[in-house]
Amino acid sequence: MKLVCKKSDLIAGINIAMKAVSSKTTMSILECILIDATEGKIKFVANDMELGIETVVEGEIIEAGSIAIDAKIFSEIVRKLPDNEVVIEVNDETKANITCENAKFNILVKSADDFSYLPSIEKNDKIRISQFSLKEVIRQTIFTVNEADKNKILTGELFEVTGNKLKVVALDKFRIAIRYVELKEEYENHKVLVPGKSLNEISKILTGGVDDEVNIYFTNNHILFEFDETKVVSRLIECTNYFDTDKMISNDYKTKIDVNKRELVDCIDRATLLIKEGDKKPVFLTMKDTELELSINTFIGSMDENIPISKEGTDMMISFNPKFLIDILRVLDEEQVSIYFTNPKAPCFIRDEENNYIYVVLPVVQ
Fold first, then answer.
1. DSSP β-bridge partners for residue 192
2. Does residue 126 sit in helix, strand or coil?
């Protein structure tokens, strides 16, 4: 095998493939990137058995072939090479010569036959969505996912397709994040639970272009994302017992406030200055007439601040973990947000009039 690529193209391909390289494994082959130049294209492939990525790298194939190379070493070598063309050459399938200008490296490689290729996905059931919409919907929900939670359901996001609507749901033990995306076409109904880790990595690869599209294919065990020159395959999480979020959300409320998002975020942010790491002191929200008073009292000190609101309904005082509120507010794009309250011991709801999004937060009950 002999390839010639620009350093910048190699780095771009490595950056994408590295997101599926296993960092904790006893199988050394999973620490490798497969370089496959057997089908007229230079492909970089990585697979940690849960997430697999294949991306095409620009370059010239002088001699076809394929090898598996240690991803970390390969990445570090390429990054420190001069900004010029890089030649990768393999003669005996055990060592690769990497040359750029006067720099020459000779490193051990593994046989491509030992590499775990990506699972074959039948491209029958799919939806199409813009990269911008997918990247945004992940950003606006992923913060509620806890990848380390023992309950597998809480480590992923529900993707539910109904007609021309995509509903994305993520939740932890204290919050629910729901986003709706309108699709350009009608599709078959699908309901799958995608690992949060996979979505995190996909969002880092997406360019986020409004006119750039992603094809998403569904199978019983996997989901495939295809965009640009990249394929991302992820295992799915069993979701037969997923929470019925519709039953968790109520349209009833006793108090509704409209508030400037930036003012509220800044106010909560100032309050957190008095909270030490690991401290679970809540912030108190007191709604009266045209003002919202936010107060906090910790071992460090106390603070209270008033900001203007438009209120509908009864006066109320309720307390929250400030992080849970601020995480939600920071992903909202609107200048004004509406927050609905039922009572001091019930969840509050943050949603828009069109129901493009709904966020639910449990209060801290004193």
1. 159
2. strand
Q: Are 216 and 225 in contact (CB under 8 A)?
A: yes
289 Ramachandran zone, left/alpha/beta (phi>0; psi -120 to 50):
left
Judge contact between 96 and 88, C-beta under 8 A: yes
Nearest in space to 209 (alpha carbons), one of 228, 190, 226, 225: 228
Whether the CB-CB separation of 360 and 249 falls below 8 Å is answered with: yes
The tokens for 208 are 């986020």
Rounded CA gap, 56 and 63, in Å? Answer: 17
Report d(CA 253, CA 340) in Å as an integer: 6
CB distance 174 to 361 below 8 Å:
yes
351-361 burial: b if 16+ Cβ within 10 Å, else e: beeeeebbbbb
Contacts of 338 (CB under 8 A, 6+ apart): 256, 257, 258, 350, 351, 352, 353
71 Cα distance to chain centroid: 23
Residue position matching structure tokens 């790491």:
277
How many angstroms from the chain centroid is the CA of residue 366? 34
CA distance 171 to 177: 6
| pTM exceeds 0.85 for this model | yes
d(CA 178, CA 288): 29
* pLDDT digits 0-9 by tens, 211-263: 899 999 999 999 999 999 999 999 999 988 898 888 888 889 999 999 999 99
The C-alpha atoms of residue 163 and residue 187 are separated, in whole angstroms, by: 5
Handedness of CA 183, 156, 325, 363 (dihedral sign): positive
CA–CA separation, 325 vs 328, rounded Å?
5
Secondary structure element (H or E) that encloses residue 259, with its range: strand 255-260
- How many helices and strands in the chain, by DSSP H and E? 7, 24
CB of 172 closer than 8 Å to CB of 135: no
Q: First vs last Cα of the chain: how many Å apart?
A: 68
Contacts with 123 (C-beta within 8 Å, 6 or more apart), sequence order: 217, 224
| Segment 248-302, tens digit of pLDDT | 888 899 999 999 999 999 999 999 999 887 788 899 999 999 999 999 998 899 9
